[in-house]
Design goal:
By secondary structure, the chain is mainly α. The chain contains 4 helices and no strands.
Length: 90
Amino acid sequence: MAYESTAAKKPVNLSVNSDLLRQAKELKVNVSQVLEVALASQVKRLREAQWLEENKEAIDAYNRHVEENGLPFDGVRQRLWKGLSKPEIR
């Protein structure tokens, strides 16, 4: 799930290492932008982990099915590839 990038900005109070903040300001780092990018990345990573956990049973069941029965249309795929000639190597 992506976030609404055009949503209004909201001021927040943060605690940041004072020396790190001083250096960032000296280097003209847009701290808000860096935080937003890092926060979006963290949210994305956590949402992906949450999705994997919520769907773990279905994923495991599908993987077991593939182990026991092969991939869907695997026989068709093998017949198609078998009929193709190998490319000539020069």
